[in-house]
C-alpha cells in the first residue's frame, strides 16, 4: 500500500485585522502607573475611580494593588516603596522585578493627564465586562434547562449592578449649586403661582407642597375603597389637560383599558352606570363625543405590565423620559412590584429594595415618583372619629417605605365609616381628606377635597364651603382652596361613533359606590 503523503504547506498567518483583541489600553495603564510613582498626590485623583481589576495586564493589577496599599496607609509611593511592597506581597517576580518598575517612570513625564487616562482604562474595563456578560448569557440562552424568565432577570440584574457599581459622581463646590438654587427661585417667581415643582391641579395641595418636587418619592397610601387610583387619575387628568404635563402611569393592578374607562367617565362627567348600560340620551352622546376629544391627544402614557420589576421600570422610565420628557411617574401599586434578580431574603427586604430603587430613579431622572401603597388592617380595628384616620404605623412594611419617602400622604374619607360631620358640625358628605403625614421639605397638614363618587373623581372644594387645610401642624400655614402593553404607549381611547359605543363594563352599583376598591 502506497504511503499516504500529506501536504507540508502551512496556512499563512492571518493578519491582525482578521482577529479580535479584548478592549484594552496597555500603554495608558503604564502611563498611569508611572505617574503614580512620580507624584505623591496623584493617587487622590484616581483612587476612587480605579480598582486593581480594572487593569488589563495582571502585572499592572499587582503593581496598582501595591500602590493602593501604600496610599491607604498614608505611606510614600515611589519606586523603592512599591518594590518593597510587592516583595512583601510575593508578587515582585510576577511583575518583572524591580527593573520593570523603574521602567514605568520613563513612560511618562508627569501626572498632568492621569485622570483622563484613568477614565479610558475604566471604560475599557467596562467594555470587557459587557463582552463577558454577553458571552455568558449567550451560552445560557442555548441551554433549554434554564427558564427564560430567570435568564432575563439575571441579565437585567447583572447589567444593572454593573452600571450601579460604576456610577461615579464627583463632589461639587457649593458655588454652582447655589447658582442653580437661585435660578430655580427666579423661575418660580416668574411663573407667578409660587410653584417650584409640578402642579397637581389641587390648589390647596399645591400651596402646601409648592408642587410635586423633582427627585421626590411620594407614597400615597389608603385602605381599599378610599380612592387611591381615582385620586391619581383625577390628578393625571388635570396635569395633562390643564398644564400639558406628560405623565406616565404604570398600573400593575388594572389594565390599560380599565384606566382609560375611568378617565372617560371622569372627563365626560357621565355616570359609570349610564355608560355601562349604554343608556345615554342624544345630548349625552354628543357630550361624550365632544369631551373625549381632549383626552385623545393628552400626554398620558400607560403601561399595564403585570409583575413589573424595578429593572423593567427603570428601563421603561428612562426611555419615556428621553422620548416624551415625562415629568411624573405614578405606580399603582408598590406592593405588586418585585425585585427579581436581587435575591431579597424576605418580603420586608424586597419592599426595602424596591422603595430604595424608586428613590434612586426619581433622583436620576429628576422627576417626582408617586407610588401607591396599601395600609394594614390597623385602621379598621380602631374606634372613634380619630381612630379611623391613617397613621404612619399603618403602612405595610412601614419602616422601609417611610424611611425612603420624601412625602407620605394618606387618603381618608370619613363618610365611608359613616362619619358625616366633623367636630365643628360641618358636613363631611362627599368630602375627602388628603393627610400629608410626612413632608421632608415642608409642613404637614390635612388637605380637604371634594370626592364625587358617581364619577370616581377628586376635585377642589368650592371657595364658600371649606378651607383647603383644616388641621395643620404648628409650622403649617392655613391655606385656602380656590374654585375652580409591556411597552408604554400614548393614551388613545377606543374609537367610537356618536350614537353607539361599546365600552367595557364598569363596577356595579349606582355610579362608583363606596364599596368599590379604588
Highlighted features:
518 residues; alpha/beta; DNAb Helicase, Chain A; Rossmann fold; 2 domains; 11-stranded mixed sheet; 18 helices; 11 strands; elongated; disordered N terminus; disordered C terminus
Describe the structure.
The chain is an alpha/beta fold and 518 residues long. It folds into two domains: 26-146, DNAb Helicase, Chain A, CATH 1.10.860.10; 195-490, P-loop containing nucleotide triphosphate hydrolases (Rossmann fold, 3-Layer(aba) Sandwich). Helices cover 41% and strands 11% of the residues. It is built from 18 helices and eleven strands. Strands 1, 2, 3, 4, 5, 6, 7, 8, 9, 10 and 11 form an eleven-stranded mixed β-sheet that branches. Strand 7 and strand 8 form a beta hairpin. Helix 1 (26-38) runs parallel beside helix 3, helix 1 crosses helix 6 and helix 15 (310-324) runs parallel beside helix 16. Residues 1-14, 463-487 and 489-518 have low confidence and may be disordered.
Label the overall shape: elongated
Tell me the quaternary state: single chain
Largest sheet: 11 strands, mixed
State the helix count.
Answer: 18
Portion of residues in beta strands equals 5-15%
Instruction: Give me the secondary-structure category.
Output: alpha/beta
Which regions contain 5 or more consecutive residues with pLDDT less than 50? 1-14, 463-487, 489-518
Give a nutshell description of this structure:
The chain is of the alpha/beta class and 518 residues long. The chain has helices spanning 26-38, 43-46, 58-72, 79-89, 97-104, 114-141, 148-164, 174-191, 203-209, 228-242, 256-268, 272-277, 282-291, 293-296, 310-324, 347-365, 378-381, 398-404; strands at residues 217-222, 247-251, 300-303, 328-332, 369-374, 407-412, 431-439, 445-452, 457-459, 469-472, 489-490. The chain folds into two domains: 26-146, Orthogonal Bundle (DNAb Helicase, Chain A); 195-490, 3-Layer(aba) Sandwich (Rossmann fold), CATH 3.40.50.300.
Amino acid at each position: 500500500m502506497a504511503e499516504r503523503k500529506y501536504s507540508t504547506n502551512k496556512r499563512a498567518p492571518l493578519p491582525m485585522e482578521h482577529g479580535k483583541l479584548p478592549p484594552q489600553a496597555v500603554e495608558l495603564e503604564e502611563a498611569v502607573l508611572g505617574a503614580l510613582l512620580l507624584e505623591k498626590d496623584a493617587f487622590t485623583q484616581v483612587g476612587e475611580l480605579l480598582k486593581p481589576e480594572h487593569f488589563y495586564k495582571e502585572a499592572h493589577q499587582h503593581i496598582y494593588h501595591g500602590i493602593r496599599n501604600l496610599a491607604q496607609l498614608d505611606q510614600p509611593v515611589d519606586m523603592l516603596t512599591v518594590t518593597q511592597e510587592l516583595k512583601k506581597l510575593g508578587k515582585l517576580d510576577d511583575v518583572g522585578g524591580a527593573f520593570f518598575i523603574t521602567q514605568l517612570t520613563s513612560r511618562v513625564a508627569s501626572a498632568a493627564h492621569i485622570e483622563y487616562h484613568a477614565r479610558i482604562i475604566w471604560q475599557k474595563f467596562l467594555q470587557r465586562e459587557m463582552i463577558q456578560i454577553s458571552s455568558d448569557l449567550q451560552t445560557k440562552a442555548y441551554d433549554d434547562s434554564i427558564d427564560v424568565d430567570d435568564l432575563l432577570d439575571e441579565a437585567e440584574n447583572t447589567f444593572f449592578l454593573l452600571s450601579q457599581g460604576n456610577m461615579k459622581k464627583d463632589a461639587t463646590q457649593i458655588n454652582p449649586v447655589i447658582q442653580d438654587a437661585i435660578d430655580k427661585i427666579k423661575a418660580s417667581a416668574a411663573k407667578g403661582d409660587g410653584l417650584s415643582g409640578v402642579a397637581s391641579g389641587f390648589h390647596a395641595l399645591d400651596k402646601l407642597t409648592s408642587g410635586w418636587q423633582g427627585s421626590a418619592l411620594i407614597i400615597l397610601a389608603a385602605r381599599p375603597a378610599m380612592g387611591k387610583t381615582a385620586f391619581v387619575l383625577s390628578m393625571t387628568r388635570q396635569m395633562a389637560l390643564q398644564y400639558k404635563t406628560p405623565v406616565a402611569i404604570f398600573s400593575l393592578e388594572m389594565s390599560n383599558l380599565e384606566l382609560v374607562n375611568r378617565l372617560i367617565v371622569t372627563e365626560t362627567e357621565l355616570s359609570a352606570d349610564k355608560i355601562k348600560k349604554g343608556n345615554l340620551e342624544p345630548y349625552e352622546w354628543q357630550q361624550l363625543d365632544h369631551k373625549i376629544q381632549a383626552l385623545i391627544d393628552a400626554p398620558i402614557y400607560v403601561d399595564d405590565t403585570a409583575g413589573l420589576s424595578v429593572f423593567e421600570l427603570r428601563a421603561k422610565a428612562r426611555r419615556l423620559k428621553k422620548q416624551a420628557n415625562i415629568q411624573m411617574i405614578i405606580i399603582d401599586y408598590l406592593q405588586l412590584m418585585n425585585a427579581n434578580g436581587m435575591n431579597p431574603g424576605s418580603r420586608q427586604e424586597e419592599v426595602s429594595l424596591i422603595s430604595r430603587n424608586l428613590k434612586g430613579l426619581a433622583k436620576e431622572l429628576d422627576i417626582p415618583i408617586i407610588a401607591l401603597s396599601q395600609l394594614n388592617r390597623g385602621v379598621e380595628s380602631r374606634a372613634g372619629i380619630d381612630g379611623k384616620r391613617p397613621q404612619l404605623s399603618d403602612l405595610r412594611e412601614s419602616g422601609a417605605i417611610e424611611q425612603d419617602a420624601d412625602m407620605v400622604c394618606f387618603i381618608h374619607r370619613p363618610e365611608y365609616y359613616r362619619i358625616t360631620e366633623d367636630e365643628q358640625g360641618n358636613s363631611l358628605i362627599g368630602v375627602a381628606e388628603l393627610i400629608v403625614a410626612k413632608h421632608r421639605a415642608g409642613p404637614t397638614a390635612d388637605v380637604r377635597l371634594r370626592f364625587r363618587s358617581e364619577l370616581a373623581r377628586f376635585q377642589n372644594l368650592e371657595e364658600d364651603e371649606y378651607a383647603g387645610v383644616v388641621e395643620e401642624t404648628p409650622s403649617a400655614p392655613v391655606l385656602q382652596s380656590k374654585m375652580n402593553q409591556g411597552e408604554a404607549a400614548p393614551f388613545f381611547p377606543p374609537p367610537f361613533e356618536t350614537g353607539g359605543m361599546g365600552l367595557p363594563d364598569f363596577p356595579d352599583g349606582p355610579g362608583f359606590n363606596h364599596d368599590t376598591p379604588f
